[in-house]
Amino acid sequence: MSNSPEETIEFGRRLGMQLRGGEVIALCGPLGSGKTHLIKGIAAGAGAEGQKTVSSPTFVLVNEYEGRLQIYHIDAYRLKSVSEFEMLGFDDFCSPQSVVLIEWADKVEAALQAIDYIRIELEHAGDSSRKIHVKNLPEYIRL
Fold first, then answer.
1. Which listed residue, of 29, 54, 62, 77, carries a Cα 20 to 30 Å from 108's Cα?
2. What are phi and psi of 12, to 5 degrees?
3. Domain extents for the chain?
4. Contact assessment for residue 103 and residue 36, using Cβ atoms and an 8 Å cutoff
5. Per CATH, is 5-135 categorized as 3.40.50.2300?
């Protein structure tokens, strides 16, 4: 449970600090549920320069952030099909030195079925409160 955007960012930061590389994180939830705030925290925890540099790549579709790991931030909101997602170069983004973060992942989840990925679902639980459900978390990550 997160009671504010700041708590959501902090949750993401704790997760990002434990990432080793090679992880794909699928974020799902309605508009305004905190997906971008969570990604700001994950990027900060993974050593990206600063959470202020993180923004949703809705129009460019993919943002890259440099840190301890290479971070690819994909926004699938405007994608019309799984093949569009694959044409972005998703397979090329996946490497042992990178982390791939996918907003609106439920739109392209069929493309993820062949890989292990962490699924994070966010849902509104009040004005600024969010429920955060994490599935398929690797054993080496403790939240």
1. 54
2. -65, -40
3. 5-135
4. yes
5. no
Bridge partners (DSSP) of residue 103 are 27, 75
d(CA 77, CA 123): 17
Its pTM stands at 0.92
> Which residues have C-beta within 8 Å of that of residue 88, sequence separation ≥ 6?
61, 62, 74
The mean of the pLDDT values for the chain is 92
CA distance 124 to 13: 20
Evaluate whether 11 touches 38 at the Cβ level (below 8 Å): yes
Cβ–Cβ < 8 Å for 7, 122: no
Q: Give the pLDDT confidence of 57-111 residue by residue, as tens digits.
A: 666 789 999 999 999 999 999 999 999 999 988 989 999 999 999 999 999 999 9
Assigned token pair, 51: 């959470």
Q: Give pairs for 64-71: CB < 8 Å, separation 24+.
A: 67/43, 69/19, 69/21, 69/97, 69/98, 69/99, 70/95, 70/97, 70/98, 70/99, 71/42, 71/43, 71/46, 71/98, 71/99, 71/100, 71/101
